[in-house]
Amino acid sequence: MMTCFDPRHTIRNHRFLRGASPKHSLCHKITQDIVLKTVVFLGSARDLAPAWSSDTRLCTRVAAWVKNTITTRSATCGPDKVKHEVTVYDPLEVFAPGGCLHDSGGELKHPHFFYKGGEAPPGMDAMRDNIKACDAIIVVTPEYNHTVPPALSSLMGHFGGSNYGYKPSGIITYSIGPFGGARVAMALRPMLSELGCLPVSKLVCMPTASSVLNEEGVPTDPENRLLKQLPEMLTQLEWVAIAMRNQRDHAGVP
Fold first, then answer.
1. Most CB contacts within 10 A, which of 37, 42, 71, 162?
2. Is 240 left (phi over 0), alpha (psi -120 to 50) or beta?
3. pLDDT digit string (tens) for 62-110?
């Protein structure tokens, strides 16, 4: 006996699910306080001022602005409130004596994934654990020779892609000149994608950064339109980070 589909059942169910009164709705919005674990990688290890600038490292002021913006940010994603727990990895510290990658060095002599389980240095294990446990990744970098600085590729390349996978990333570039590091932003997209931390579409590119931010990373003009890029990128990053975390919790990773 053939059973015919009755569209009236669908219509009645549809009206029930979309009832005019919120108290009859099957879906109630519940507000949550979400804390995203966010890892920030800095791309410059420079400690020498070039002939054309007095800044030993322009990254210092840009990184200070980025960290302050993220840690003081009070955002929402739908009904939820979103904040960040930030960890910053600076190649000047990580590769320095006592740093967690000092023994391996910027030349990447000892990748973490070459060690047998339990044999890696404790500091390197701790850095790997932080990366693996994070919800989002942000890269703050200049461009060297129009591409990714070796300090950044070594810093991130010490750890296998499985630690970065199924998380979003955001790209922040800067320069002392007028181009804002746009070329390294394009070089970073395939690199981050291959690591598995897919970059969101919104970029933060800051030209003439030394005139936009003072030495402490405070904007010289709070109304400068370049400053609007970071909150817009963070909004995308937070949306994707929450979605990916929910799916990791629900289904694991492939």
1. 42
2. alpha
3. 999 999 999 999 999 999 999 999 999 999 999 999 999 999 999 999 9
Nearest to 242 by CA among 37, 66, 73: 37
Q: Which of 238, 232, 230 is nearest to 68 (CA)?
A: 230
| C-alpha triplet 116, 135, 195: angle, nearest 5° | 55
Name every residue whose Cβ is closer than 8 Å to that of residue 66 and which is 6 or more positions away in sequence: 40, 138, 140, 172, 217, 230
Tell me the β-bridge partners of 197.
Answer: 167
Give this prediction's pTM. Answer: 0.88
Dihedral sign of CA atoms 183, 184, 188, 190 in order: positive
Q: What is the mean pLDDT of the chain?
A: 91
Q: How many CB atoms lie within 10 A of CB 232?
A: 13
Q: Rounded CA gap, 158 and 113, in Å?
A: 8
